[in-house]
Write a structure and sequence with these properties.
Blueprint (H helix, E strand, L loop, with lengths): L2 E6 L7 H8 L5 E4 L8 E5 L2 E5 L11 E4 L4 E2 L1 H12 L10 E4 L3 E2 L2 H13 L12 H9 L6 H4 L3 H22 L6 H15 L3 E2 L1 H10 L4 E4 L25 H4 L10 E7 L2 E3 L12 H9 L12 E3 L1 E2 H11 L3 E5 L9 E10 L2 E3 L6 H6 L1 E8 L16 H14 L3 E5 L7 E3 L6
């Protein structure tokens, strides 16, 4: 039995989808444990591109896929995604796809509030995707949320929706001057979702426990990345949930003793979408090169990603926060063609060198990266299937990462395709 958590070690967009898709071949269950449709995984299988926002990447491998209680779900997005995958020949049925009865639902008023708040901030915007994620988590914490179990409770569930919509309409009108939402239209819409999604709603926690006790392999799939974590990220430029490994347990309903490994996904350089300080960000032709070679656009928003050199201060801290047992380095091929590679090993701040990641964003914004420079390579590496097939400079770069973080590299991605991968260790052995 192996129960592996896969998560991002940077600001998200590290390539988790491809790694989960590949690992899912040997897994029995794939579980999404946090976030919402503000995240997106881009997968390339036999030259065909798939983008998922809510359904775990393991669906492409025909595995049982579960949405845990820690996820907030927009049923409009979910049903559209289900139909989109079906139209491409994939099975989405109550035999292979399940939704936790305790997962919270993103309501229309959550999205309206999200957009109204962001617009009111002007130049001080956080950079939210406007998809209602934050307001939904707020209602969850304030005990005012609508859960999937409410879709199954008939009049009681409808009464909750009526009451919450009235409250939110008052808030929207008084605070932002926004016209009220149509409560009857919302009820009609959610009656439809109740009918469509009822067969998929179940006790996900129980399913995972039963699978683990039966010796089956479970893969836990995170969204976003470590530095978007509500507690440990670059607050307030973060998401509204815990993205670190510990939340795999809370967000799916299992105990910590069930987890056997934590795989951190490390992009071979660093990217970020949205606002917030970014010490190694590049504003020159190298940053443009990374952006173009890596097709660095958000899978969910389409926004251009900011690009910069790899930051070891971030990675070492992420290893601590998540208890990493292994790493997967992705998009190594994007660096091909660069003559030299800079790697940040510390920050200069007011004449001092910092090796700990600052919690104060004012400090982080003033930090200047301290770089070590390594030689690059020009050889095409996309056909490499073992480490010894890589150029020596690429091996040196990987060794530098491994030694600096103190965690072994299990997987190296050398291209977007499922098979363009070097596997150092089978995590399900």
């Amino acid at each position: 039995m192996a129960n592996i958590v896969v998560l991002g070690t940077q600001w998200g967009d590290e390539g988790k989808g491809k790694v989960v898709d590949m690992l899912a071949e040997n897994a029995d269950l794939v579980v999404r444990f946090q976030g919402g449709n503000n995240a997106g995984h881009t997968l390339v299988v036999d030259g065909e591109e798939f983008i998922s926002h809510l359904i775990p990447s393991g669906i492409l491998q025909g595995k049982k896929c579960l949405i845990g209680n820690g996820v907030v779900v927009d049923p409009a997005v979910l049903t559209e995604e289900m139909e989109g995958l079906r139209s491409r020949g994939l099975e989405i049925s109550s035999e292979n796809f399940y939704i936790s009865r305790n997962a919270h639902i993103i309501m229309p008023y959550h999205k309206t509030i999200d957009a109204a708040r962001e617009n009111s901030l002007g130049n001080n915007k956080i950079g939210t995707t406007g998809r209602g994620i934050g307001p939904c988590y707020e209602d969850k914490v304030s005990r005012r949320g609508i859960r999937f179990v409410d879709l199954l409770s008939g009049d009681k569930g409808r009464d909750k929706i009526v009451q919450r919509t009235k409250e939110k309409n008052d808030y929207l009108k008084k605070i932002f001057g926004v016209d009220p939402l149509d409560t009857d239209a919302i009820i009609t819409e959610f009656n439809g979702y109740a009918e469509t999604l009822a067969p998929y709603i179940t006790n996900v926690s129980g399913m995972i426990s039963e699978a683990a006790k039966g010796g089956r392999h479970v893969l836990f799939e995170g969204a976003q990345g470590t530095y978007l974590d509500i507690d440990h990220g670059t607050y307030p430029f973060v998401t509204s949930s815990n993205t670190v490994a510990g939340n795999a347990c809370c967000g799916s309903g299992i105990g910590p003793t069930e987890i056997t490994g934590v795989l951190g996904i490390v992009k071979a350089y660093t990217t970020r979408v949205g606002e917030g300080p970014f010490p190694t960000e590049l504003f020159d032709e190298i940053g443009d090169y990374m952006q173009k070679q890596g097709s660095e656009f958000g899978a969910t928003t389409g926004r251009k990603r900011r690009c910069g050199w790899l930051d070891m201060v971030m990675l070492k801290n992420a290893a601590i926060l998540n208890g990493l047992t292994g790493m997967a380095v992705t998009k190594l091929d994007v660096l091909t063609g660069l003559n030299q590679l800079d790697v940040c090993v510390g920050y200069k701040y007011q004449g001092k060198t910092l090796t700990d990641f600052p919690a104060d964003l004012g400090v982080l914004a003033e930090c200047e990266p301290v770089y070590e420079t390594l030689a690059g390579w020009t050889n095409d590496i996309s056909n490499a299937r073992s480490l010894d097939e890589l150029p020596q400079n690429a091996i040196t770069y990987l060794n530098f990462i491994e030694e600096a973080v103190g965690v072994p590299i299990n997987i190296v991605s050398v291209g977007p395709g499922r098979r363009e991968t070097i596997v150092n260790k089978n995590l399900f052995e």
